[in-house]
Amino acid sequence: MVKGFICEKTGEKIPFDDCLQCAKTRINRKLACPFDEATIFGMIFNETKRREGIITITMISGCPRATYIGRHYETYVYPSDLYWAFRGQIAHKILEEAKLHSDAIREKRFYKEWEGIQVSGQPDLIIPSQRVLKDYKTTKAVPSYRNKDGEVNAYENHKSQLNLYRWLVLVPYPIEEMEVIYYSMEETLICPVEIWPDESTRKSEMTVNRYFEENLIPLKMALDSETMPPYKRNWACDDYCGVSEICFRELKKEIMASRNIINFKKGEETNVSPNTLKKRIRSIS
Q1: DSSP single-letter state for residue 129
Q2: Which of 28, 77, 156, 227 lies at a CB distance of 3.0 to 4.6 Å from 81, suitable for a disulfide?
């Protein structure tokens, strides 16, 4: 759970309320902090409102290791690490104000069970009369990869996210079209998203059930057993992960522990007793 910020200027760990007070009293101006009180409040609000115990579509289509760390570790992040999510909420706020469709369903949270596991999600926009589901994303750059038909593809994790949203809202809102609307600092782009088949025996085709088997079940098992999911590099690791410091610190421990175990199995340290080896592994953690 994110408990507060790491000050961009001093490196000090600060509770959310203290950081907000610093901005409100303009003390942060003396440090040349780039964030004012409204921006700080928005980032805090955006972070704390997501805290619910149920597994969400965003978690399933995101990084399981980051989800686990967020649930089991008290973390502090730089405000700049939360800025991208905050910037995305600006577009969502405009969407809330723009009542362009009388039957539009905006950011409503839905709940559904899959194999006894409760899942929740909050699609950006559903237009029931058109059977359309839309999601809005802010990015550094809009997608550029084109498929065989010459259409620009949405990013893979966003394709998965929308197909899971479609499954979530299918009753009472059948969806026949889906699209991601991307905003960068330079342009906007609408990317249609192909609907996954209900069933398929082809490995190249994804289905909701297959995706849940590959992603939801391991995440659920990791959270229930309090076992850190294995590291798997993804698009968020470099610039968008708020828990990368903890992730890499724990990864280093895992690598060192596994090396000690491998060396012991190979007999490379024949004079080391099992008890000594256990103490070494414990000392790493």
Answers
A1: G
A2: 77
Burial 6-34 (b: 16+ CB within 10 A, else e): bbeeeeeebebeebbebbeeeebeeeebe
Residues paired with 76 in a beta bridge: 4
In whole angstroms, give the CA distance from residue 211 to residue 207.
Answer: 6
Q: How many domains does the chain have?
A: 2
**83 lies in some domain:** no
Report residue 230: phi and psi, to 5°: -65, 155
Same-domain status, 256 and 209: no
Q: Do residues 109 and 122 make contact, with C-beta atoms less than 8 angstroms apart?
A: yes
Distance CA 6, CA 10 (A): 8
pLDDT tens digits, one per residue of 123-178: 999 999 999 999 999 888 899 888 878 889 999 999 999 999 999 999 999 999 99
The phi and psi torsions of 148 (rounded to 5 degrees) equal: -65, -20
Is 48 part of a structural domain of the chain? no
Q: For the segment 36-84, what is each residue's pLDDT rounded down to a tens digit?
A: 999 999 888 877 766 567 899 999 999 999 999 988 888 888 888 788 7
Strand order in the sheet with 55-56: 55-56, 117-121, 110-114
Q: Which one, of 173, 154, 167, lies nearest residue 216 by Cα?
A: 167
| Predicted TM-score of the model (pTM) | 0.79
Domain that holds residue 264: 244-284
Q: What tokens were used for 260? A: 């000690």
